[in-house]
Amino acid sequence: MTDAAAPIELSSATANILATVFTGLAEARSEIGLLEAALVYLRPLGPFAVDLHRTTVFADGVPTHARPVGRWLADAAVVDPNPSAVDIDLRSHLSISRLWYDQTAPVLLEDIAGDPRCDAAYRDLMAGLGIAAQAMLPLHSEAAGRVIGVVVLHFRAPRSFTGEERYVLKILSLGLASFLAGRRLLAEREESLRQAERQRRMLTAVLENLPVGVYMAEAGTHKPLLANQIGVETLGKTRIEDDGRTYYEAFDVYRRGTTEPLPHVELPLYRTLTTGRPHTGVVDVMSHVEGGGILTLELAAAPVRDDNGEMFAAVVVYLDVTERNRAEAERMHIRDELIRTQAQALAERSTPLIPLGDDLVAMPIVGALDRVRADQILDVLLTGCAARKARWAILDITGVPHADTAVAGALLRAAAAVRLLGVEPILTGIRPDVARTLVGLDVDLRGVVTLPTLQEGIAHVARNSTRAR
């Protein structure tokens, strides 16, 4: 028997066939294409079927499962026999599988019925399928360091192989393994590229649809690397400055709420590029959008690192809070105005001016008096008297708990003020203790009608009103 490993001088016909085969292998664009190219030599050997299996699952370097990826039957085209992608469990015939996955040369079962390498179960299985001989071409990849597939030729009758056939089958198995490994590597790279492109598109979609501006600069040079659309629209600049300027050279940045330029070394992105740590801040920036004016931006910068932890860039995320701050200021103004209005209304309710007739108003004063409340009382009294064209105004201090200089001053100012409007002031509700206090303070109430009760004050107005008629 000829040694399959020894070089053999091929016939010119065989050499031409091999040249055609390897040309086809080089041009193949699929695993089925590889099998079609190999059939140029394999078909004339007389098999009724040829299978190409790709190993898929390994245990300790040994293939335990294989997937059929191409099948040729006599007088038919090569097809994918396994569209549902179901693997063959090689462990069911482990003794036969070991024959080819441990070898780098073809395994030739020239007569399965009498071959001692085949057990009874395998012989019975092959006899049931009408297979009398097989040639197994292990596809061992040096790059992968293992068998990556196998080509199996099935014969209806026992088949002896010549030395040339054995030699060519070994060359063909090595060539198929090389091209199959290359095809698989190409497919893996293409899939990696597709995955990378999908990830790039996903990240781009996320970046372009974020409600905040994003800007990235290169470590060391601080040159711009990218900016998303909303960042461009916010500041009115191109994504990468044509003149190569850095971000702090291309923008006018000010301290918040001022026109004082902010040194670029204080910018969060610059500080992150310098220190490698995250930084935040709030700045005012001149927008180059037409009519943009000054924008207030909240900034948050963070380093971008490679697998070794080295910072190669830094990214800053910025949010335009100009309108938010303006709205917040408006809300504060509205709140303060509401508080002021409520305080005024409360003050007026605490010192109500009560109309008791066409030309008489009364103001019952309850509680302690201070300078602020005295001013409020005076405002309410003057406004009410003028509005109602009153002739008399009764100030009832029955509810004032004690009298002091603040109370005395308030009463005197109120009396003098309404008298300037032509209104006669009347003071009622002076209790004995209040009277003693006012006398002790040497308060001069001359010119002011004083009566003990509100009822007597009303009666006094009624009597004088009748006389006037």
Walkthrough of the structure:
This protein has 469 residues and is α+β, with helices and mostly antiparallel strands. The chain folds into 3 domains: 12-188, Beta-Lactamase (2-Layer Sandwich), CATH 3.30.450.40; 213-320, 2-Layer Sandwich (Beta-Lactamase); 351-468, STAS domain (Transcription Regulator spoIIAA). The chain has 13 helices and 17 strands. Strands 3-2-1-6-5-4 form a 6-stranded antiparallel sheet, sandwiched between helices. A 6-stranded antiparallel sheet has the order 8-7-12-11-10-9. Strands 13-14-15-16-17 form a 5-stranded mixed sheet, sandwiched between helices. Helix 1 (12-27) runs antiparallel to helix 2, helix 1 (12-27) runs parallel beside helix 5 (163-209) and helix 2 (31-42) packs antiparallel against helix 5 (163-209). The longest helix has 47 residues, at 163-209. The termini are far apart. Residues 1-5 have low confidence and may be disordered. This is GAF domain-containing protein.
Q: What order do the helices and strands come in, and which of them pair?
A:
Layout: H1 12-27, H2 31-42, E1 49-59, E2 62-73, E3 88-89, H3 94-101, E4 107-109, H4 120-128, E5 133-141, E6 146-155, H5 163-209, E7 213-218, E8 224-227, H6 229-235, H7 247-250, E9 253-255, H8 268-275, E10 279-286, E11 294-305, E12 311-320, H9 322-350, E13 354-355, E14 360-366, H10 371-388, E15 392-399, H11 405-420, E16 424-428, H12 432-440, E17 449-451, H13 454-468
Helix pairs in contact: 1-2, 1-5, 2-5, 10-11
